[in-house]
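User: Hello, can you help with two protein structures?

Assistant: Certainly.
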Amino acid sequence: MKQAPLAGKKYAFTAKLENWAEGMDYCAVQVPAKITTSLGTKGPVLVMAQVNDSEPFKVSLFPVGGGKHYIRIKAKVRKETKTKTGDKVTLSFTVLDRANNVYPSDLLTALRAEGLTEDFKSIPPGEQNFILRKIDEAVKPQTRKKRIQEAIQAAHRRREKLADQDR
């Protein structure tokens, strides 16, 4: 069985900010091979990261094949740190426990109203975390409300999938 990366483990390195998608404002940093190897997985890894002296932000190291991981650096973070493609940045991160999710109260209220709390909590941790991160990152109230509705839909799909498996 694969071993999950050790939650709480801290890493830091310096690297060049790369343009990840031609024609798009999408930048990423390659995680050094030594760190990727020590993570012990070729899959995504949830982390709390910081670029230079930025505010900490939750993100996943994403695998790109060949045992390599990258970490996406959002425009908001680049603006905060006044960095751009080609700049060297110091990146530090702490591995988080994917199963240790914090549920926003407005999401829990919506799930309870639909009787879907346990269905949502049965969604695999990585997918759940992605949904929760999208909700947390919403800037406008209407966007947050829309993303909570998407979470409700995901819980409905999970309920249907589990019911199908029980038949």
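That covers the first. Now for the second protein you mentioned:
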Amino acid sequence: MTEAKKTTAKTTAKKTTAAAKKPAVKKAATTTAKTKVAAAAKAAPKAVAADVKLNGATYATGKRKDSVARVYLLAGKGNITVNGVAMATYFRRPVLQMIIAQPFGITKRETEYDIVAFVSGGGLSGQAGAVKHGISKALEKREPELRAALKAAGFLTRDSRVVERKHYGVRKARRSTQFSKR
């Protein structure tokens, strides 16, 4: 190789190694508080779930739309844990928190029981409804005298409304194809 080719090869090698080093430095510098919080939140559910002992808990399954909730009712102080996270963190909307607290409000048992719930499927609204249904069923199992109040409020009835399936030859469940004159 000639002398000019050797120098260009060295400079391009230096550029590629410098370019390879820069993104690594940028990634380390851009680690923000959000990523640290997200990493801590992912690690937290495992720690919380490991701490909870479910011995002597009353179990019930609640369902709503496509969501299924496995609910464990324990004697406690009114703490509600959903998928290893506090209820206020998992369900951030106040309406969803209110839905979950309804069975305790009707039965006047706000601070007597702790709830550990594991929810899967569907969206947040369906999951909140499933947890409410599960809590109501578990309360009724633990204290059968609460059945009348829970039944009158409609909390023991499974809301069977689900999304209608899409039909053949139609755009959506009910939406037909657009009319074309020509």
